[in-house]
Amino acid sequence: MEANSWSGTKRMRTSDKEREQVAEILRAAMAEGRLDLTEGEQRLAACYAATYRDELTPLTADLPGNGLWALAESPEVKKATRRGLRRHFNIVVSVAMILTGLWIISGAHFFWPAIPLAFLVMGLIRHARWGRYAYAQRVAPWNAPGYSGHQRFHSGHRGC
Q: 12-53, pLDDT tens digit by residue?
């Protein structure tokens, strides 16, 4: 009989969203020929039958980047990245217009909105360059399939 949270172990149950995320990675690997049809179907069946997160880890362990490359390149992630980038751009433009209006009203000689706008533009550039990777990992790293708490203690730094 498997131990669960009632008996004191710390295994974390997986959600439907996490199962679907791993299934998406497996489907992409099958489409690219990294997995043949038989092995891909076996892994998909195991993915949907998984109860705990640690059961999902071996399904993508031998894929490049544990399969996250597939999520970063999926059409859904690209669409979400463009939508988020468009929203971020609109916010930066709106703030720029407000700050420029305040500068005009203030009558200051120095264009002081340049300072906050520089930081806003740097954030926009960072979002444009790295945004798709953030969307690819839809859960926090410590909640992602395959993460185990002891990794932080073996990575060379001491825990709190």
A: 888 888 888 888 888 888 888 888 999 999 999 999 999 988
Quote the pTM value. Answer: 0.47
- Angle 133-135-140 from CA coordinates, rounded to 5°: 90
Question: What distance in Å separates the CA atoms of residue 69 and residue 57, rounded to the nearest whole number?
Answer: 15
Cβ atoms of 66 and 60 closer than 8 Å: yes
Return all residues near 26 (Cβ < 8 A) that are at least 6 apart.
35, 40, 43, 44, 47, 59, 60, 67
**Three-state DSSP string of the chain:** CCCCHHHCCCCCECCHHHHHHHHHHHHHHHHCCCCCHHHHHHHHHHHHHCCEHHHCHHHHCCCHHHHHHHHHCCHHHHHHHHHHHHHHHHHHHHHHHHHHHHHHHHCCCCCCCHHHHHHHHHHHHHHHHHHHHHHHCCCCHHHCCCCCHHHHCCCCCCCC
